[in-house]
Design a protein that fits this description.
Neuraminidase, 331 residues, 5-stranded mixed beta sheet, single chain, mainly beta
Length: 331
């Protein structure tokens, strides 16, 4: 009986999704914060504290090429997206939840094709999120950090990263026209992911959205952005807890690529998995997932304490009334 229980325990963790490690990433991109695949090339970026540079990766995880965007700064780059016209860089990170002034940089695909080492960009900008409070919010309301970007039908979409503990946590979906200049950002809807969301990739041909967090990968088939909260994505739980920050389709090779930032005791690495691994039924993850969820909850608790400490040092903890929105968030 004891052996049987042991075998059942092992099997309960066998259903997890197992991305295959391709390579350890070049030190130049050890804080990778986004991933995109186009024209048979894989590109990534670093997050805040780095130059405004895009890096092309080869299959060994080394930097094969790079572009410096001389018309912008990397305040807090978080994700990449691409459509038929532009590559989009989301400078929208908001760790302290009170950022004013968000930017999505647009670089034409023509400029990429020229392979110049220095390129310029246009931008989409918006001043503030429609439901964002004026002061540093309590942990249960700390959901104004944006880390996932995708583009559909000339609109740029952003998903928030809810950093409260796992369980009953929502990712909010924002939309803004994907055209140059300042625009009004709209809170469209939300979905209960129950974990922080850090990256997204959209395939126009199949109308499929794939979203990643640290624990799971969510597949939205026949994606309807106007009915986000009521959709039923297939959820595939990863076999290990990693700080996945980027996810990208490669339609030519029928693969999905993932990149994790250095953290959680792991090096920054590039992973791949066949698109077919996301075609079947969702994977539950078993007993191992329960442990990883507990581990992430503890990490988020430590992270929130650190963020609150920084907010206190910056005098952001002022006793003002929080602004609550009547828009369709956190259903």
């Amino acid at each position: 009986m004891r052996r049987l229980c042991f075998l059942l325990l092992i099997c309960s963790g066998c259903a997890a999704l197992k991305p295959v490690k391709v390579a350890t990433l070049d030190n130049a991109v050890n804080e990778t914060s986004g991933l995109v695949c186009f024209d048979s090339s894989l590109w990534t970026i670093n997050d805040s504290g780095h130059r405004a540079t895009l890096f092309e990766l080869n299959t060994n995880g080394l930097v094969a090429d790079s572009f410096f965007d001389y018309q912008t700064n990397n305040e807090d780059w978080e994700d990449l997206a691409v459509d038929s016209f532009f590559v989009y860089i989301a400078d929208v990170g908001n760790n302290l939840q009170v950022r004013r002034g968000f930017v999505i940089d647009l670089i034409s695909r023509y400029d990429f094709a020229r392979r110049d080492s220095v390129i310029g960009s246009q931008e989409i900008s918006f001043a503030v999120l429609p439901d964002q409070p004026d002061v540093f919010p309590k942990v249960r309301r700390r959901n104004y950090d944006l880390e996932a970007l995708f583009v559909k039908k000339r609109y740029a979409y952003l998903i928030s990263k809810n950093i409260k503990a796992c369980g009953k946590s929502y990712g909010k979906l924002y939309r803004i026209p994907a055209s140059q200049g300042a625009g009004a950002v709209q809170l469209v809807d939300s979905f209960r992911f129950n974990e922080p969301i850090t990256g997204a990739t959209y395939d126009e041909a199949s109308n499929r959205l794939i979203v990643t967090g640290y624990l799971s990968c969510f597949v939205f088939d026949n994606f309807d952005e106007n009915n986000f909260h009521a959709t039923s994505p297939r959820r595939f739980r990863y076999n290990k807890l990693r700080q996945y920050e980027g996810i990208a389709f490669d339609n030519a090779k029928q693969k999905i690529y993932l990149a994790n930032e250095k953290g959680f005791g792991k090096k920054s690495s590039l992973f791949e998995m066949p698109l077919s691994s996301l075609q079947g039924k969702e994977m539950k993850g078993g007993f191992g997932y329960a442990f990883r969820r507990f581990e992430l909850t503890f990490i988020l608790w430590v992270y929130n304490a650190r963020i609150k400490s920084i907010a206190r040092q910056k005098h952001l903890l002022k006793p003002k009334q929080e602004v609550h929105s009547n828009q369709p968030n956190e259903r």
